[in-house]
Amino acid sequence: MEAGILVSSPTSSSPLSTPIPSVILTQDELKKIAAYKAVEYVESGMVLGLGTGSTAKHAVDRIGELLHQGKLQNIVGIPTSKKTHEQALSVGIPLSDLDSHPVLDLAIDGADEVDPHLNLVKGRGGSLLREKMVEGACRKFVVIVDESKLVKHLGGSGLAMPVEIVPFCWKFTAKRLQDLFEDAGCVGKLRTFGENGEPFVTDNGNYIVDLYFKKDIGDLKAASDTILQLAGVVEHGMFLDMATTVIVASELGITVKNK
């Protein structure tokens, strides 16, 4: 069970801050508040990128609810995973793909880390490639998080920065990735699941190597380019200069950060 957070109304707030009434809220409830705020950006007739994960799930549910109520119409969704595809269909969101809609109006998704410049780490749910393809094709990309996801620098949470790789000789690729960031104390681990430790397989049939850093990796653009130059790497989980808005739910309420 997630720890409860005591939420209290601030004595004053900026125009971009919305206070939450005093009540004990779980982390998931904070995610839901942020997700509902993000859905306020959605207008009838839009083509939407539908994110993946526990936070984005709330946004997809809300869009389906508003469609059912008739408050939104003519929405087309582009899902970022098979799981989101199934969820969106279940709540009545019409779906399409990037081949039919190469430019999207808006995408809504969560993030695993957000730095002060609105750079992100995503993909701990395993959908980073499709997320980056869809969200990179959007005019606006709204990110929804709770305050625990805010970091001073990417990798600063000490949790995984995922890299999607081809299964062929994955140990070779994982070792090369780890060696790239030796100065940052990097440790690379193949993502596994189940009691037998089977490799986690993405929707695209690939593996994921999770990189853990003890220090700041420095120039993010240089790190991105270096990772992508390795044969065997498909994509990484750093989303640089992509988010246009980040909505943060905290004990003080909702804060909206714009690029």
Automatic annotation (TrEMBL):
PANTHER family: RIBOSE-5-PHOSPHATE ISOMERASE 2-RELATED (PTHR43748:SF2), RIBOSE-5-PHOSPHATE ISOMERASE 3, CHLOROPLASTIC-RELATED (PTHR43748). It comes from Prunus dulcis. Pfam families: Rib_5-P_isom_A (PF06026). HAMAP family: Rib_5P_isom_A (MF_00170). This is ribose-5-phosphate isomerase. It comes from the Eukaryota. Its EC number is 5.3.1.6. Belongs to the ribose 5-phosphate isomerase family.
